[in-house]
Amino acid sequence: MATMRDVARRAGVSVATVSFVVNDSKPVSPGTRLRVEAAMAELDFRRNAVARALASRRTRIIALLFPVLQHRLSDTAARFFTGAAEAASELGYTVVLWPVPNDSESLRELTSDGLIDGVILMEVQLDDHRVDQLLAAKTPFTLIGRNRDPSALDYVDVDFEGMVEQSIDRLQSLGHRDFVLLEESDRLELEGYGPVVRVEETFQAVCAERGLRGRTLRCAGTPAGGRTFASTLLAEAPHATAILILNDHAAVGFVSELGKLGVSVPRDLSVVLIGSTVEVSAMADPELAVMRLPAAELGRMGVETLVGRLDGTLGDLRHDLLMGGFHEGESLAVAPVARGGLGRASA
Amino acid sequence: MATMRDVARRAGVSVATVSFVVNDSKPVSPGTRLRVEAAMAELDFRRNAVARALASRRTRIIALLFPVLQHRLSDTAARFFTGAAEAASELGYTVVLWPVPNDSESLRELTSDGLIDGVILMEVQLDDHRVDQLLAAKTPFTLIGRNRDPSALDYVDVDFEGMVEQSIDRLQSLGHRDFVLLEESDRLELEGYGPVVRVEETFQAVCAERGLRGRTLRCAGTPAGGRTFASTLLAEAPHATAILILNDHAAVGFVSELGKLGVSVPRDLSVVLIGSTVEVSAMADPELAVMRLPAAELGRMGVETLVGRLDGTLGDLRHDLLMGGFHEGESLAVAPVARGGLGRASA
DNA sequence: TTGTACGCGTTATCAG
DNA sequence: CTGATAACGCGTACAA
Can you give the pTM of this predicted structure? Predict the structure, then answer.
């Protein structure tokens, strides 16, 4: 493998000059530049990233932290990753998905051995110890999501508040006044996951504000959990005519089971999936309305923010909220006011 | 950040000695070792991975190549990644998921800039240009999957042949003699994806051998594709009593639509999902039988093989085939011989 | 058992 | 505009 010295010798210049043309960090006369470029081509020169990193004290690598205990890397996370990768590549960085066990040691090692310039955190918890560790390690980072008090941190997050509000808007325009919000029970118990908390708070606030009936219920984040929940819903909230679901994995089972119980979507019940994808929505029958999670955009913005911080071109803190588009699907209909609720829906 | 020099000074030894205790690459007397360790602790010394890599000419980083065009990173891939990560960590390596655009330049850069020691390839195509590129670049790599002629390469792959055979065994023991294999149409057109080809060949061979009826059909790899396929099946293979599905994303829609058409699973049709997960199987109703893809194990073995190659502790080529466990689910039943096939199933 | 000194391939500084 | 040359932080013969 050819080094800069080889190229320099071949072109009859010094290594410094070669470096200048490689990075064009300094002006170089057209003549020598040509000679250097020729030499590089002839020798098939590839710059050594490790040496480069050692000398410049930056690797231009960004780690997207992936908690290894979390066994499901959703579609959403994949999109997020590719969005981030694209943006990084445009900015001269590369982002890699880095598996980090949940012990505190691994994160310290990762951030202190100099192999990465910065970190992007996803699946941020309300009280996330990783944030403190990164602050202590003085590693530049940005959040995808928010912890309890992110006011002093760079973050990009989904505008769950807006998404909930907009979903309710849409349903209200169809005459619905009696809502249920379905969340995932396991996640909440875990510690306090931002989206879950924020969605619930917004949901309750909006309902109160507008004089709507709003009830929050939960079930396990599995298809079976959703199935079981179908009858729970009929028992606990028979009058509801619309449901917002923040529980991807339960949604399909839930809707399928509803059908068996004689409840028709959307005739008897309108359904909106929050923060999911059209792919998931298409798994259900009928295809569900969904407020999409703007995954790729989040990834892109996360990287742009972090790179801005790394390159020093970012002065103030960045706090961005993004909303995903609304996909209508086949699960919305005018509220069945005349029918008297779910209990008699199929009668 | 403390360097080795700092530690050496503090402990009153030379940097070489510090290096010896850090890597224990040479015997060190208990006394000085203790002094060095104390100094390291006091100064909170962390070795610089970049300098280490430059000097030793190895980074101990393995890249798991992730094709960015592929927007769905399945559950399976996630498991695979975590399995690989675990194994790597035990062996003193770290594996990261590296996004690689599909242009040939990116892969060359990745492998020639010295940032990674080796590569693991997943989603290997029958004719995969990446293999040639890696060979040309002399980058150590192992395949998860197989290209057309992998005889000279290290690989770990799913034993699709065994899985198909075992599935047919099970169904045959229930009296089934008339099978359909459902594959994904898009993937095959793409180029020739190993699993698809191998499963089909095995399916046809086993059926021929045992005098069974076996028909291969395809549909799009989407829920909608599966739905459409339900009626296709009734038209094209009304006599079939069992179906093997190598099409994750279509399975749920397919089964759901079958129900609407009055075909009952498993009474009228037995269903086995091939190379998927219980999570996907649970999305369907009833829960499907599934020959699981041993994802985590594949990841683990892939890393073990590659590391063995990197460390030179692996003499011969490694060719490993793994089978996943069989999950019974609720989609298997005795063949409805008396009923005369799907066409009249619900009559 | 420990120390010296050089090399790894670039970048960056400073002089010309 | 170009060239020497000193870092960058660590591994490792070789010498002591």
Answer: 0.91
